[in-house]
């Protein structure tokens, strides 16, 4: 691999993950611009070297510069990472492309699916910037742990081998290891789907589940999400990697996951609205659940866990009734591996 020289990196979105990834690139001595909407947050970074709203207590390196001006943030960038919630993704990229240098690489950090179109973020990037190389980062990456320099690993997925290798070099450091994978669809789908199962696990923990139960939920979640994604064209092997089982494990185990916490608060008796308000940050799984539930019906893919959570959240079904339905369904359906692709 040829050594990457100092490259101008821009991250769009000053939330927890955008800030954490921007800081890693800056730690690797690249000049980094973090574009955000909030003047207050930008001032906070300039004056206190901290994003107190999203990553309180973590020092941001000096070569990370906040910016409120999209044009100047993007104009000379070699790499543009997009870290805004999926519902804002298309609008932000639409505005960005007019300023994009011809050779800039575009990489999504977002784990979600576009409502109505069912497009993944890389597909939106392709739509809006068809001449640019596109990639996606996904893996077990809790932003606060990355900011705390805890050892973490992730996946850069792209059809472009050059882009994969460049991003590996751009972000790899002693506490962060980046692996390449050409299966962009599988990596991205895994990152979106695991949020649904984190909500289920959080809910089950709040209701006092035992460790056997957690293991059963995580394992059946992996089978269910792989079955769905493989039906849509993903490589089943991706689900045995960091972006698949890796991310599923961390998101279904940690109170730092916002999706897990949504489930936990609902399990404690909050309404969905109250849970979302209490978290105050992006929890993509809520919308992903609606879209995947609909798509599973359309494709005829068997997804009992998605169906169960949908019934609890959107149809007000009692959790106990859903749990007993899951445990007493037709055993003929419950074959561990349904086909070569699970
Ligand atoms: N936080 C994590 O641990 C983590 C890890 C991996 C991936 N992700 C993914 O990254 C994406 C972003 O998550 P996050 O954790 O940074 O969310 P967040 O809630 O911490 O921050 C979202 C940021 O996006 C900004 N934003 C929202 N709408 C915008 C718009 N229209 N224009 C400009 N900025 C806008 C908000 O102001 C905020 O700064 C999500 O899809 C999430 O699943 C998060
Ligand atoms: O906080 P969550 O639930 O969005 O999860 C964060 C990351 O996706 C974990 O990899």
Automatic annotation (TrEMBL):
For binding substrate, which residues are annotated in this chain's numbering?
A: 111, 258-259
Query: According to its UniProt record, where is this protein mainly located?
Result: cytoplasm
The answer to whether the entry has keyword Lipid metabolism is yes
- What class does this enzyme belong to in the EC scheme? oxidoreductase
Tell me the GO BP annotations in alphabetical order: carbohydrate metabolic process; glycerol-3-phosphate biosynthetic process; glycerol-3-phosphate catabolic process; glycerophospholipid biosynthetic process
Q: Which positions in this protein are listed as binding NADPH?
A: 16-17, 37, 54, 111, 143, 258, 284
Q: Does the keyword NADP apply?
A: yes
Output the Gene Ontology cellular-component terms.
cytosol
Where does it localize? Cytoplasm
**For this protein, what is the EC number?**
1.1.1.94
Active site positions: 194
Q: Which residues bind NAD(+)?
A: 13-18, 143, 258
**Highest taxon in the source lineage:** Bacteria
User: Which protein family is named in the record?
Assistant: Belongs to the NAD-dependent glycerol-3-phosphate dehydrogenase family.
Q: What is this protein called?
A: Glycerol-3-phosphate dehydrogenase [NAD(P)+]
